[in-house]
Amino acid sequence: MSTRSEALADALDRMGLGSDAALVLHFPLRYEDETRITPVALARAGQPVQVEVEVTQSEVKFRPRRQLVVTAADDSGTVTLRFFNFYPSQQKQLAPGKRVRLFGDINPGFFGAEMLHPRVRTVGEDTALPDRLTPVYPATAGLSQASLRRAIDDALERTDLADSLPEALRRHYALVPFGAAVQALHRPRPGESLRDLDERLAPAWRRIKFDELLAQQLSLKRAHAARRNRDAPVLPQPADTDGSLIDRFLQQLPFALTGAQARAWAEIAADLSQPYPMQRLLQGDVGSGKTVVAALACLRAVEAGYQAAFMAPTEILAEQHFRKLADWLAPLGIQVAWLSGSLKVREKRAMKEAIASGAAPIAVGTHALIEDAVDFARLGVAVVDEQHRFGVRQRLALRAKAGDVSPHQLMMSATPIPRTLAMSFYADLDVSVIDELPPGRTPVLTKLIAAARREQVIERVRHACEGGAQAYWVCPLIEESETLQLQTALDTYEQLVIACPELKVGLVHGRMKPDEKAAVMADFVANRTQLLVATTVIEVGVDVPNASLMVIEHAERFGLSQLHQLRGRVGRGSRESACVLLYEGPLSQTARERLRVIHAYTDGFMIAAEDLKLRGPGEFIGSRQSGQPLLRFADLVIDEALVELAREAADTLLRDHVEAADRHLARWLAGREELLKA
Ligand code: ADP
Ligand code: MG
């Protein structure tokens, strides 16, 4: 093998294009129209065109920098070409008298029409024009379009493009045959609409997107089914529930479960009594009361002689869960262990021993809980709060904790997942939804106020706090610099201390030690401080019912889900609540849109749907994928209807055409399954 083809093979490998199957599914990003020649004089500025010209002059100039400047003309006009990087071979190709076709943008320059680095093709008097649009592929350094095209063409010759779908199904969904779709995208037929291809509207694209979504559905549904083959501890409902641990817990709880909580718990309890691991997502808007439902799942494990792990993504949140659970469970005589990265070595060792011996029935903590050195004696239930904040790796590690038997997993999220996402990326999870807030909540009034009126806002907050309210003051997010963000928090704190001499003001930020943070939060919970200056560390989960006011500075810098999470910290008590969004102009289009949405909606699902439109799915599934996007062609916003169809088709295939499902998966997911299961 020559070194050149080895280099090519390497480059292809690096792009995951080592196989014919992969090459066939490597579709163009866009297309160029080289089927037509435009007279130089008629070329429109800023639009890619092809011209055919004869070189009249060619020289290398050194001012202002080294460049090859070529003058060329057709019957209609003259064009100047500039190359800042060029090889001697290019100089030869562009010697006076040569006839070339150029592809690129023509722009008006100082000396008339100019093309910068056009693509050059040497032609004779009557070289035929291609009759197909030219595909442009995603490529990488060391991989030219020409060699990629050749590799794909070769792969197309060798590969069986038989349809993976049964004919009847293909017709039912009005899909073009797979082979035809593939050919149409790689080698568009003459006269194919450039626009439909570029914008991925062509029927061939619809087929490819459908196939991609179908592969995702099949894979997730298979993963879902495969779970039944793994063992999990059976945690049955006791025959006599009266006086059971759970019964006693519910008796001494200061409130009754809402209908939605009871429903979610019933679904979870049913899962826990099965011999295979639960993998359930518990969704509920901020403040809907997910924690108590998770506590019930933990207790079911304890009742059956197993352990439960309760993980949260931040120290503050984990600590809060710990306090709440310890508080709830102390009367039942159940010890809750606390494990965080910041414990002293000796304390940590003691905790780990208690967990390993089984002496600690319930352990709460951050990701420290799934560090390798922590071994559970009999882990039955693992709760993961704010699951989208954990990485794939951490969740897999947690699953691995249990050894031969997998623990039941309960994942919780207050970031509502829009329907299309839930249907696609989370199709392997069972979902319970708490769609009802506990009684007595007051709707939060949201106000947008220009930062110029900050003084007035301080005055109002001060007044409200003097009247017995408590308030959060959230400092601006400064993404570029953590130091600057810290400084802003310190400055704000000092300003507010001076502006509100009658109030006790607290400060909490990400750089504080965990026990310092805990002390500040404890003061706020106990109403020893009335005004809490905070960075976004309070974004998730913090629960202080008496706090009824929130001011967010530079609200325009925050994302929608962040604003929603922050705002969810208030409106938890009986006091009328308000959230003031201070903003500073000029606002970008998206910032304006975000503020409009957060002002208009309080329902997390509505906000999430808007957010999906604004940002695309990446943010929602960030932790589910590791680098490589799982969907390359389909777009969950644009192709929502196709997701539905693919889901339905997946069920049909798995029921009636198992070999077809296998064929389809083999084609689409070679080497990618693991990613999808995480
Ligand atoms: P989230 O779903 O955001 O995690 P939490 O579990 O923190 O919500 O619950 C929010 C608050 O509501 C907590 O103070 C919790 O004790 C309280 N709560 C939960 N369920 C109920 C209920 N059924 N009735 C009254 N208060 C409840
Ligand atoms: Mg919570």
Automatic annotation (TrEMBL):
InterPro entries: ATP-dep_DNA_helicase_RecG (IPR004609), DEAD/DEAH_box_helicase_dom (IPR011545), Helicase_ATP-bd (IPR014001), Helicase_C-like (IPR001650), NA-bd_OB-fold (IPR012340), P-loop_NTPase (IPR027417), RecG/Mfd (IPR047112), RecG_dom3_C (IPR045562)
SMART domains the record matches: DEXDc, HELICc
One Pfam family cited in the UniProt record for this chain: DEAD
Keywords assigned by UniProt, alphabetized: ATP-binding, DNA damage, DNA recombination, DNA repair, DNA-binding, Helicase, Hydrolase, Isomerase, Nucleotide-binding
Domain Helicase ATP-binding: residue ranges: 271-434
Domain Helicase C-terminal: 457-613
EC number: 5.6.2.4
Protein known as: ATP-dependent DNA helicase RecG
Function: Plays a critical role in recombination and DNA repair. Helps process Holliday junction intermediates to mature products by catalyzing branch migration. Has replication fork regression activity, unwinds stalled or blocked replication forks to make a HJ that can be resolved. Has a DNA unwinding activity characteristic of a DNA helicase with 3'-5' polarity.
Gene Ontology process terms (BP): DNA recombination; DNA repair
Reaction(s) this enzyme catalyzes, per UniProt: Couples ATP hydrolysis with the unwinding of duplex DNA by translocating in the 3'-5' direction; ATP + H2O = ADP + phosphate + H(+)
Molecular functions per Gene Ontology: 3'-5' DNA helicase activity; ATP binding; ATP hydrolysis activity; DNA binding
Organism in which the protein naturally occurs: Methyloversatilis universalis (strain ATCC BAA-1314 / DSM 25237 / JCM 13912 / CCUG 52030 / FAM5)
